[in-house]
UniProtKB/TrEMBL annotation:
The chain crosses the membrane at residues 103-131, 152-172. This is EF-hand domain-containing protein. GO terms for biological process: phospholipid biosynthetic process. Residues 470-505, 506-541 form the EF-hand domain. Pfam families: Acyltransferase (PF01553), EF-hand_7 (PF13499). Pathway: Lipid metabolism; phospholipid metabolism. GO terms for cellular component: membrane. Residues 42-53 have a biased composition (Polar residues). Keywords: Acyltransferase, Lipid biosynthesis, Lipid metabolism, Membrane, Phospholipid biosynthesis, Phospholipid metabolism, Transferase, Transmembrane, Transmembrane helix. It is found in: Membrane. Residues 25-64 are annotated as: Disordered. Belongs to the 1-acyl-sn-glycerol-3-phosphate acyltransferase family.
Length: 566
């Protein structure tokens, strides 16, 4: 899937499925005064009796449905997980060649495809040479390209139309007209295939926002440099900030071309509008939305879960590929929305969704990363690990890279074909043994109370614990409690002594397994850095240190730490 666009804070769009599963987990004596330290300690030390059944033959563990909240001591009042959705905005519906008509058509079009391939290559080379001539000797790239160089770029633009012709887009239906650049300096569009950037280059010759990785692409990198591209690294906050500044600078000057963005940040199958990134909306200029459609019966032209080579081959072997482009009315930010990019993006997103008559979801490029990672690890139903990352980032402020890390952890638990993990596999990966606390941790995640967990529940639970106001303070105090020697490192004996307060039945081998989980570099000691890093990767394990922290005033320590930071 394509990676064309600016990565800014992600927009949480309305979901296709609004159903939620909300479980409020409270202790029996929740009405007690939280300021009473003695009562708080007694409440957190109270354990409900659970039934852990160790099967004699296969060693599996049955879960008895414990409902105690093991994270109440760090401020959790229970876990809420939105209901799952079957929407898949990235699925290409014609991955395989099916039907007698389609097979015969491909066989007939193979000779035509060879001619089209030659035309494609010839146009690409001619356009590349023309672009090199236009760029030759041009050093002042902070200012608009001189007009005589732009005239040379018309050769490349004509070549881009010929490239579209080689892909089977012999004619393209248009509806509406581009607004004058003085009225709408920014254009946004839905993103379905690699075809749209080629079309917009021919039609509008805009400045585009693209990933830094595109600069190294053969031929393409040179051409987009001539478009005075705004490069961005979606994973770098400073890069995103600089990109927004460049968008604002170029949009404010009529001597520059209009700025084109694909605010979804990746390609979809055109049946949904996913969450918008905010780079196009932060500057607060009027925006003209444009929608692209690819009507089809036998061949889905979307660049979803299909390789580029296969998609190009299928395009070359079609008699004709249909494409429709509709220029919508300009969307103006209101006075108060000019300072609120989120509202402006929501309004524009709704305009595109209404024009396409499709549903809006909270998926984002982060879901593409999760899908890709699951596919790399050979999971057949990779789409079940998509979680609508825009919603997750909005709720918990965790990055897509962090979510991929949690997915790696979850997939190591050997989920079944439906993506469910049992208690025994969960405990194996977290190096825990069957006990009351382990069951409570699992029960905290299993909001459906069916004895298994899915990735979305695991991710929400981990992110929920990480976001708790006292989590960071609890991690710091847990290290201090374990480091009884005061030498800035924890030994295996010290870690075992602290964890046995929560799970007294742990033997030496089990302590050693947990120690290895924290001891990332294997030097036989756990530094503060490795300890905190392990808890960030495995935030659910903070429950192991609850008994050691019961006598601590976490809230007071947290306020003091915050004052020291300020």
């Amino acid at each position: 899937m394509a990676d064309d666009d600016l990565s800014s804070p992600l927009l949480q769009s309305p979901r296709a499925d609004q159903s939620h599963v909300i479980i409020a987990v409270q202790d029996d004596d929740s009405g007690s005064d939280p300021s009473d330290q003695d009562q708080l300690t007694r409440r957190n030390q109270t354990r409900q009796n659970s039934l852990i059944d160790n099967n004699k033959k296969d060693g599996s563990i049955s879960w008895s449905g414990s409902s105690r909240n093991p994270y109440e001591f760090v401020g959790s009042d229970g876990l809420s997980v939105p209901g799952t959705t079957t929407a898949d905005p990235f699925r290409n519906d014609t991955l395989g060649v099916t039907g007698f008509y389609e097979i015969v058509k491909i066989l007939v079009c193979v000779p035509i495809a060879l001619v089209r391939l030659v035309l494609f290559g010839l146009c690409l080379v001619v356009g590349y040479i023309a672009t090199k001539l236009a760029l030759c000797g041009w050093k002042d790239k902070q200012n608009p390209m001189p007009k005589w160089r732009c005239r040379i770029m018309w050769i490349t633009r004509f070549c881009s139309r010929c490239i579209l012709f080689s892909f089977g887009y012999h004619w393209i239906r248009r509806k509406g007209k581009p607004a004058p650049r003085e009225i709408a300096p920014i254009v946004v569009s839905n993103h379905i295939s690699y075809i749209e950037p080629i079309f917009y280059f021919y039609e509008l010759s805009p400045t585009i926002v693209a990933s830094e990785s595109h600069d190294s692409l053969p031929f393409v990198g040179t051409i987009i440099r001539a478009m005075q591209v705004i490069y961005v690294n979606r994973f770098s906050q400073s890069s995103r900030k600089n990109a927004v500044s460049e968008i604002k600078r170029k949009a404010s000057c009529n001597r520059f071309p209009r700025v084109l963005l694909f605010p979804e940040g990746t390609t979809t199958n055109g049946k949904f509008i996913i969450s918008f990134q905010l780079g196009a909306f932060i500057p607060g200029y009027p925006i003209q939305p444009v929608v692209v459609r690819y009507p089809h019966i036998h061949f889905d032209q979307s660049w979803g879960n299909i390789s580029l080579a296969k998609l190009m081959f299928r395009m070359f072997t079609q008699f004709h590929n249909f494409m429709e482009v509709e220029y919508l009315p300009v969307v103006f930010p209101s006075n108060n929305q000019k300072e609120n990019a989120l509202h402006f993006a929501e309004k524009t997103s709704h305009v595109l969704a209404s024009a396409l008559n499709v549903v809006q979801t909270s998926h984002s490029y982060g879901d593409v990363m999760l899908y890709t990672r699951a596919s790399q690890l050979k999971h057949e139903k990779a789409s079940i690990y998509m979680v609508e990352m825009a919603r997750v980032e909005s709720l918990f402020h965790i990055s897509s890279l962090e979510a991929v890390g949690f997915l790696d952890k979850f997939l190591s638990m050997n989920p079944d074909s439906s993506g469910c993990v049992k208690l025994s596999e969960f405990l194996r990966v977290l190096r825990l043994k069957p006990c009351t606390l382990s069951e409570e941790i699992f029960g905290f995640i299993d909001v459906d109370r069916n004895g298994t967990i899915v990735f979305k529940q695991f991710l929400f639970a981990s992110a929920h614990v990480m976001k708790l106001p006292l989590f960071r303070t609890a991690c710091e105090l847990a290290f201090a409690e374990c480091d009884t020697g005061g030498n800035g490192a924890i030994s295996e004996h010290e870690l075992g002594a602290a964890i046995r307060r929560a799970i007294p039945e742990l033997n030496e081998d089990e302590i050693h397994g947990l120690f290895n989980l924290f001891d990332s570099n294997g030097d036989g000691r756990i530094s503060r850095e490795y300890f905190l890093s392990c808890l960030r990767r495995n935030p659910l394990l903070i429950a192991l240190f609850a008994p050691s922290l019961m006598h601590k005033d976490l809230l007071g320590v947290g306020k003091k730490t915050l004052e020291e930071i300020v």
